Amino acid sequence: MIEHGPYYVGLDIGGTTIKSALINTAGEQVGAMVEVRSLVDEGYRLTFQQLEEAAKKLCDQAGIGPNDLGGVGLDVPAPSCDGVIWGKANLAQDWVGVNIREEFSRHIGLPVFLTNDGSAAAVGEYMLRPDYHGSLLFVAPGTGLAGGLILEGGAIYEGANGLSMEAGHISVPFMEEDGELPTCSCGWKGCLEAWVSLVALRRRVEIELGKDQWKDHPLNAEDSSIKEKAFKLRTLAEQGDELAIGIFKRQGYIFGYGLADMTRLLDPSLIVIGGGLAEAKFRDAYLDWILEGFKARVWPMYLKSPVEPAKVTTCFEWAIGGDAAAAIGMAHKARERFGGD
Predict the structure, then answer these.
(1) How many domains, the chain?
(2) Do 38 and 6 touch, CB atoms closer than 8 A?
(3) What is the pLDDT of residues 246-273, one digit of tens each?
(4) Which of 108, 138, 151, 330 is least enclosed by beta carbons within 10 angstroms?
């Protein structure tokens, strides 16, 4: 008999890789995170094969077999409701309208829990804080702006149709120099994601490099794409580059401003900031810029308790789970749903 079995697999589907983690029945992670290539743009059936490969590698690493698994937690980078994919997002068209939870359960022969990637990462961050039991709002700038909300006690808030926490698509009143609201990747104007995302950084660096102020900037001398130049902004900011710092400072302020409105609606006791900036060398300064925007918009009671002046009512922390957070979160959800506790 395998000690600490059964085991539970967490699978996090990304556009480039699938990240996976394994935990035992005691909730302890077993072995390291495993990554395999993602084939989401080639259809869900090919992706199922990659997911199965990831699960097999986890088992091989732990010295266990498929029969020792008790369930799977799976997240997808797209809106879903009760297992059914509602929108294409970064997936191939054949995912839409399919009950991925049921189909993958049949494919792998195990019960499957399914949610979106933002909620998955939020669960992971919650589970990595075993002494914390309050509510947790997770937001992560990446290609877009992901979000997830964990209620006190650890339940995911997904909404009636699994479509809640589209954090990147709240509206913020910030305009471009021409007085226009920036267009978001969703097609609407004025979304927070249009300021706080990798796509937004590409737009901002192109605008800034077109100004006389930056005509002699090294990025203007490069024969590279805007996408490549935007990718270099984090390193430049870490080196103290004035252009890069200015772009991130504005982004951080607007990010905090948007978080203030989310806080008024959700009143989380902890806001966790994820994404690549959680590991940036200038992250302390970035958090200061977030707090500057947050304080400019939020009511004082969301900063300090009016009856307990020493009590901070909304705390901020950087994510601690890194790339493995969503996979870890899904493994824990599988254990919670299928462990029979």
Answers:
(1) 2
(2) no
(3) 999 999 999 999 999 999 999 999 999 9
(4) 151
3: burial class by Cβ within 10 Å (0-12, 13-18, 19+)? exposed
Angle at 192 between CA 188 and CA 194, to 5 degrees: 60
Backbone angles phi and psi of 13, in degrees to 5: -85, 120
Would you say residue 256 lies in a domain?
Answer: yes
Reported as a single tens digit per residue, the pLDDT across 278-336 is 999 999 999 999 999 999 999 999 999 999 988 999 999 999 999 999 999 999 999 99
| Domain residue limits at 22 | 7-128+323-338
DSSP 150-203: E-TTS-B---TTS----GGGSB-----TTSPPPBPTTS-BSBGGGTSSHHHHHH
How much of the chain is helix, strand and coil, in % rounded to 5?
45, 20, 40
Instruction: Report the alpha-carbon distance of residue 139 to residue 148 in Å, rounded.
Output: 7
The structure's pTM equals: 0.93
d(CA 329, CA 150): 11
Is the residue at 37 inside a domain? yes
